[in-house]
Amino acid sequence: MNTLGLSTILRLGCMCAAETVDINGIKYNVIELLGQGGFSCVELIEHTTTKRKYALKRIKCHSIDDEQLAENEISYCKQLKHPNIIELIDACHKGAADSVIQSTSEAFLVLPYYKRGTLHDYLSLKSFSKTYLEIREIIRLFSGICQALNYMHNLRDGPIAHRDLKTGNVCLTDNLDPILMDLGSCAPGKIQICGQQDAQLLQDIAAERCSMTYRAPELFHVESYCVIDQRIDIWSLGCLLYALLYFKSPFDIVYERGDSVNLAMISGNVYFPVETVFSNEIHNLIMFMLKINPSERPFIDQVIDRVDEYKRQLENTV
Q: Could you tell me the domains of the chain?
């Protein structure tokens, strides 16, 4: 009697257990889990016929509100068409969430698969090898992200804020071009807060969906009567540029020490290494965006102007 080795049995078992998902009549095989978040997971999938690979974002919905948030993400993905913003290939919703009986549904988003992963992954490798990015490469990557935000912040129908801009939400193409992704936190860029209830609601949403070490100070303690605009993304953009230089947000370091991120932000102190390969000009660009008072913070077109000026300086040094 022939017997199978344990590794063969396990391999065959995995093959038999492989899941197939149907998205609007198109079938994909699930290959592996790429990432897991608090509200969703991302899997590597393969078209059963063409064998082309994609990323599948699954959003588990436990309530009607969750379903609406998922539909909002799909809507933003369909609306935002830019070379530096992730493309939605297909989407569907299966099942129905009911807040009474606590059943669940799932939203499925088929997205391009970027085998290089995210900017966070890329910077982690550079950090491990203690290799700084070249300043021209930093500016090239940063400019692409700025162009994506410029498009979102200046839409004809009104600005849209990303609200969770960070290195983990930027994919990299084979050519290392940045692609802004994860539009689940997107919202209208300008919001009028009228009273404590509005303020608490936004503060709770920000705490849940906006990464702490990239979150703008005004989202930690939302005032009862104020206007929150798209410049919350500019603060995050400043943190992201710092990470392009030194691999992490300036407030990741604070968080890792166990200190208060919010207190570090409102102190206005950002630590730059004494021994560094980078110039004061690029540090000044970071601080240009990290203004505690949002009314003093630049809009994205002003940031792009400063970046273009810095590019010209670099060209003149060649």
A: 15-112 (3.30.200.20), 119-313 (1.10.510.10)
